Amino acid sequence: MSNTENSLYVKKARGLAQCELFLMKSEAGKLEALVYNTTGLNDCPPRKYDPMDAKVLAQKTKSDVVWKNPRRFWMMDHLTISLVGEPRDFDGLPFNFVAKMQMPVGFDPKKDQSSQAYTPMKIHRVSKYEFLKGLPVFLLRSPDGHTWVMQTYTNHIDRSLTEAELPNLAQRLKLADGWQFKMKMLDRNLTITTNGLANIVPDDLANMYQGCIDNVHNFDPW
């Protein structure tokens, strides 16, 4: 794991725990978010993250709303992500500033991302995800024929979900009409490189996937 002035590189990212804070302000009826992530600084210890009060953080940061993204685990093998700005400390826990995004229509900060299940959204981010040959990837296929690669999983909703259980995830998901899920063992390295705008989608257990859209991928793993 290493930092440069403008980017973060994590050599062994698969299974690494992290969490995010979304500092949001309402602009023209839409929620604009600054996204802070613990990756590169700590593994989001629950004893520090869980007690954080979103309402108090909103007051401290002069945000309209602060949303706590539940603790997650990266699923790529190597991760490179550009840093948007300076890191910040929130209640004694340091976070890197990693992205900006407009929250999707209907977003409710009282709910987790499963409330937006199978609804694609976009996030402003510069990143490179590397998934290595011989290791599994977990994929969604949307009705329009796009492949989505799991970037993080969480046990926030299904407390029994572990990385070892992901190959059987199809049995736990309630897929939306026309969506498919499968595991694939890679026969070559998969690289997903985003240079500004990433397409992402959650499933109904709040696991998050990045879309193989707009030529960000070196091949379609489906």
Radius of gyration of CA atoms, rounded to a whole number:
17 Å
By helix and strand content, what is the structural category?
mainly beta
Distance between the termini: 30 Å
The secondary-structure element order is EEEEHHEEEEEEEEEE
Strand fraction equals over 45%
Helix content: under 10%
Low-confidence stretches: none
Give the count of structural domains: 1
Topology:
Layout: E1 2-3, E2 7-10, E3 17-27, E4 30-37, H1 46-49, H2 54-61, E5 65-74, E6 78-82, E7 85-90, E8 93-102, E9 121-131, E10 136-141, E11 147-153, E12 180-185, E13 190-202, E14 208-211
Antiparallel strand pairs: 1-2, 2-6, 3-4, 3-5, 4-8, 5-11, 6-9, 7-8, 9-13, 10-11, 10-12, 11-14, 13-14
Brief digest:
The protein has 222 residues and is mainly beta. It has helices spanning 46-49, 54-61; strands at 2-3, 7-10, 17-27, 30-37, 65-74, 78-82, 85-90, 93-102, 121-131, 136-141, 147-153, 180-185, 190-202, 208-211.
